[in-house]
What we know:
It is a lipid-anchor. By secondary structure, the chain is α+β, with helices and mostly antiparallel strands.
Amino acid sequence: xxxxxxxxxxxxxxxxxxxxxxxxxxxxxxxxxxxxxxxxxxxxxxxxxxxxxxxxxxxxxxxxxxxxxxxxxxxxxxxxxxxxxxxxxxxxxxxxxxxxxxxxxxxxxxxxxxxxxxxxxxxxxxxxxxxxxxxxxxxxxxxxxxxxxxxxxxxxxxxxxxxxxxxxxxxxxxxxxxxxxxxxxxxxxxxxxxxxxxxxxxxxxxxxxxxxxxxxxxxxxxxxxxxxxxxxxxxxxxxxxxxxxxxxxxxxxxxxxxxxxxxxxxxxxxxxxxxxxxxxxxxxxxxxxxxxxxxxxxxxxxxxxxxxxxxxxxxxxxxxxxxxxxxxxxxxxxxxxxxxxxxxxxxxxxxxxxxxxxxxxxxxxxxxxxxxxxxxxxxxxxxxxxxxxxxxxxxxxxxxxxxxxxxxxxxxxxxxxxxxxxxxxxxxxxxxxxxxxxxxxxxxxxxxxxxxxxxxxxxxx
Length: 461
């Protein structure tokens, strides 16, 4: 390190201050991104009103709330995100520490003996060394700001994942109920097919029915047995999926006896302008954009001169007990101002890379914003479509039940062939199964709409 005369050092410091005063912040975020426009209202309708704070409570299902609480506590994906949050907190500590001086203490001792010496000599030394990288351009401050913004983004991500896991758990819970209700429908179909086969077999023995009707009845029984087995497997897999979200062993065994609730009340959808502040995934994307922009500023300031101050003090004695007695034997204090002159474009390339990352994060943010709007719009229109289909299928279920009773009655009187009975049975049970499926689809869409609007919920824990 070269010592600089006082006059020249004062000139350098004055020049450095002038450069600091003339420095400007670097940002690659466009003003249009900072003021992303939102429509005044939802294009596909929606229901006016304030968005609720706890969508989970609207289902009035204590078992569902208990399971969501369990998933929020035990889910492995959530535990990973909590560890990522802890890692981000430590990254902030690291970046903050770079702005402060570093101090090291050293302690040493030696014993020496030579041929010319009369005996053994001892020496002990203690020293303190310090180094401080002065943040004259606020490069270290920008690096700290970037890590703090990344920490805030990770907090938003954790909140987003918590809401996703809660919604997924609720959807899987209703999937289990749907699978169990469809298994009940499959069981009734099998019982009905057995009854129809017995009736046809009795008529065949009495000479009232031909062999074709008997074979058709037997075929229908086997088809329904296969359908029942398939639905049993579907129920096991639905339960296993729910158990995985709860961090339980997926044995496919879980007592859930509830029925699918039928939605009656409309869900208030609020205003589009509220969406960007309600959705944590959008907030995460925005904070990540700000973090990459702060990294760009740090990369720009890395091209400026760096100032380091180094100091040390030490004491040497012949006796260990005298190390802390008296003053220091030697000390030094120096500074170093270093300006990159030639690096074959390395620092410029690093700055351009940082600028490119900002542009990427900016496009990711804008893409997510419009996807968030699309999530709500699609859920709103899907709500109306599912309601129309549900009402139509309820009426179809009533008509198919009446048609089945009439077909059985007319078949026993010999007025229609057995194929009419088979078709009536198929339509009746298909309509019943479809009503169950549509009931669940409406619930799934309602949960998806809650999530698209921000997905706030509260559990017992």
